[in-house]
Specification:
Length: about 170
């Protein structure tokens, strides 16, 4: 059992009977887990970067538009998340939505967007690499595809040479 996860791996993903290479790769990254926010779909990816570097990308709101396909802009003070912090995100639909960070613990955090408990974010350290995951509410299962894309972007950012503006 990985930190905080009670995982039962998903055996099959049914998408109107379609199967392809990308669907097989997506299926290999999915799990169902009981999290502090309840039963969730977890999409995760192993990344060959330090857990601290990946965690830094997840908790710095200035970096969210760099890896989050659904986030165009963020307004938050302070820019590094903490429990109870509030702000707003501009989504790819162009709308600004308020958010509140509802939980921050070692290597994980969750938030609420408006009245809805949204995704959880987790890093599981493993020596010089880590596994990063998003915990998606069951009702938002299509959002798994957006999270899968975000994980690929996080990997690209985390494995690139450091920039001057990284903390």
């Amino acid at each position: 059992m990985a930190r905080g996860y009670n995982i039962q791996y998903v055996e099959h993903v049914l998408v109107f009977g379609l199967s392809s290479g990308w669907l097989d790769r997506l299926r290999a990254t999915l799990a169902i887990a009981r999290t502090p926010e309840g039963l969730r779909i977890v999409v995760s990816r192993r990344i060959d970067a330090s857990p601290e570097r990946v965690w830094g990308l997840l908790v710095d709101t200035r970096r969210w538009p760099d890896w989050g396909p659904s986030v165009l802009d963020v307004e938050a003070q302070p820019p590094r998340i903490e429990e109870g912090a509030t702000g707003r995100v501009r989504t790819f639909f162009g709308r600004w939505l308020p958010f509140t960070i509802t939980r921050v613990s070692e290597w994980s955090w969750s938030w609420r967007i408006g009245p809805v408990q949204a995704t959880g974010h987790r890093v599981i350290p493993a020596d010089s690499s880590c596994r990063v995951g998003f915990e998606v509410p069951l009702f938002a299962f299509p959002y798994v595809l957006v999270c899968w894309w975000a994980l690929r972007r996080i990997e690209t950012l985390a494995t690139a040479p450091p920039t001057d503006n990284e903390w």
